[in-house]
Protein: Nudix hydrolase domain-containing protein
Organism: Musa acuminata subsp. malaccensis
Amino acid sequence: MVALVSRHGRRLQRYSSGRRLVVGCIPYKFKEVDEPAIEVLVVSSQKGPELMFPKGGWELDESMPEAASREAFEEAGVRGNLEGTLGKWTSKGDDKVHFMYALRVTEVLQQWPEMDARERKWVTVEEAREVCKHSWMREAVDKLADLLPSPSGQEMNSA
């Protein structure tokens, strides 16, 4: 049985030069519709309706990939395979450093720790660019689009 409890508090979180180290991922899957497409999973913020990717503090007892996978499980209720790093961004307020990964989803759970606090939604890459409030998240989704071939074998970003 899997525990459906999120980690709380910042006592075990990592900091560097006074900045909180945050790790997250962009969960994605290949979907067949009229033509092959890639969808990404966004979740609502606990602070309101804003949509974002799963992310949270990197804790002392885990590696960065473990933190990214944990955040995907806790916030979005998905499991999968990390398939590459997307980059590192400093927040606008210069108080956090965000490290992001690409996570190919292999399992979507019906129950997960933050299911009562968050909504999750599959969207296209283009929709994710529109709904993500933070510029660094838009840059991360652009990196994902550049890294992944489309399901038909062609690059996603044709711009």
In short: The first helix runs from residue 64 to 76.
